[in-house]
């Protein structure tokens, strides 16, 4: 299989972490791409009409895209149990929360990097950060029991999201006021799969 990716993407990192946690990294050939809005490489567009990364080109089926599709496929392929067979709803909700933090964080970067300065909206950027802030508060107050439980896709998604905040938005100091979440993130970041995928 071939994984089309960019190392700076938190969604790609989520897939790479799953590949490592499920011992499937050697089954995938990595293709590093440079992507930007309005500048989709031709080979990526051929594999994924949406033009987004990550995209997993399989030898025996359609190309898979969207990190949630890819990670679920990899989990099923390895029978790893990152998506619990019984009562999966909390893990899925945590995955969605982590992915939403990533989406808002990436959107903030794109607003500053790819829009003309005169067209940039400070209030829109702050609205994205407000989504992140609400998610962080909820994770810290509601989800610590699950985050401290057996490894699943929700933990991986949240960890990659928090890692992206460190990578692109460290000046926002997301840890302030989220002591339990910050302590968990530090511990989770020590996993081999996380250490090997730091952007």
UniProtKB/TrEMBL annotation:
Ranges for domain GST N-terminal: 1-82
Pfam family for this entry, one: GST_C_2
InterPro entries: Glutathione-S-Trfase_C_sf (IPR036282), Glutathione_S-Trfase_N (IPR004045), GST_Omega/HSP26 (IPR050983), Thioredoxin-like_sf (IPR036249)
Source superkingdom: Bacteria
Protein name from the UniProt record: Glutathione S-transferase
